[in-house]
Amino acid sequence: MPISITQALDHIYTQTPVVDDEWIPIEESVDRVIAEDLVAKFDLPRFDNSAMDGYAVKCSDAGTAVGCEESIFAGDTPKKKLQKGSAIKIMTGAPLPHGCDAIVPLEAIEVDSDRIILPAEIKKDAFIRWAGEDIKSDTVFLKKGERVTAYTIAMLASQGMTHIKVKRRIRVAVFGTGDELRPHFEPIQPHQLYNSNTPMFLARAKELGCETQYIRSSKDTMSALKDAIHQSLHADIIITSGGISMGDKDFTKEAFGDLGMELIFEGVNIKPGKPTAFGKIGNTVIVNLPGNPLASMVNYEIFVRAAIRKMSGLKAYYHNTITTQIKETLRLKKGKYTVKLGHFDGKGFEAISLQMPGMVSPLQAADGMIITQPDVEVLEKGKVVNMIPILCELGSELKEDIFTS
């Protein structure tokens, strides 16, 4: 009995382990997941400083002419305390002198011989950057489960950090099944097909930050399948396509079962891709996807992507959606949760007109998908839909409703 998409995802979220940690230089950590909360060693800024090129002044001197005989540059140590009736010229980033109430920008000052005339009103603390206003020492400034970006590197470098503990990259092994399949770099006979699924799965895993291994397509025999599985068991995730339906040579699940796979679910109430199965051998996760390219791609995006997010240690590992409108009326068959691929232009979602489970061409055109509830027969133009983006990572820390009703 097929389970629901929600049930399948819940199994994946609860059964998928998180990979181990490793220390790496911060320059190599982009797109990795932080493995521990990071606590600031010191304040940022480290000291009170000027936010403008201007003059350090006292508010009580507003509207008067004051003397100025000293300048402070970034990197200097102030030598004098600011006295009433005087100002100190100061550059952006330079530390404040003691006794400073505010900074007056250069353009707000009038120069009169050897004195400067201050504006009539000076707001206390104006144009001052206070120590710790950006990052406070002894506080968590980056959290476990966040993904490192180029701008995360700026924060790490600002704290003088050279290395960071992150989750290691997930190892993904992929092989296909089918006597009729051949690698795309070999000649084929008229009765054979090129295996488009395996290179697609490998490339997608790389896009999602994984390390990958290609296992040559297995023949449809138990011994060949078991050999391919043995070659893959070092991986964190094994992805196969084909051989999981009801055909006479569909041995994939049986081969995995003989090698100790705990089958967690087989069959999902989804169109396309009902035969999708999920299991484990030890800590290795196995996802058996359909052989039809479009069906396998859809289920990869829904289920494999969920497993990769969870395994990576991301705290925002649930699917998230973009709420948008459908641009053209879409008619559907009732009875199953139905996935439709489409294009999102930032304003609306338009389903690809022709998309069948065995097709390849819609995969390139799609940058989003919607999943409709079983009772949905028509989505009228302008109807609000929940779209799962394909080309960007949009996770959620909370479980979201990903369906369109």
Describe it for me?
The chain has 405 residues and is of the alpha/beta class. The protein has 4 domains: 159 residues, MoaB/Mog-like domain (Molybdenum Cofactor Biosythetic Enzyme, Chain A, 3-Layer(aba) Sandwich), CATH 3.40.980.10; 46 residues, Molybdopterin biosynthesis moea protein, domain 2 (Alpha-Beta Complex); 81 residues, Molybdopterin biosynthesis moea protein, domain 3 (Molybdopterin biosynthesis moeA protein, domain 3, Beta Complex), CATH 2.170.190; 87 residues, Beta Barrel (Beta-clip). The chain has 7 helices and 31 strands. The strands form 9 sheets. A 6-stranded mixed beta sheet has the order 7-4-6-5-9-8, with no helix packed on it. A 6-stranded mixed beta sheet has the order 16-13-17-21-20-18, sandwiched between helices. A hairpin with a 2-residue loop joins strand 20 and strand 21. Helix 1 runs parallel beside helix 6 and helix 4 packs across helix 5. The longest helix is centred in the last third of the chain and has 20 residues. The radius of gyration is 30 Å and the shape is elongated. The two termini are 23 Å apart. About 1% of the residues have low confidence.
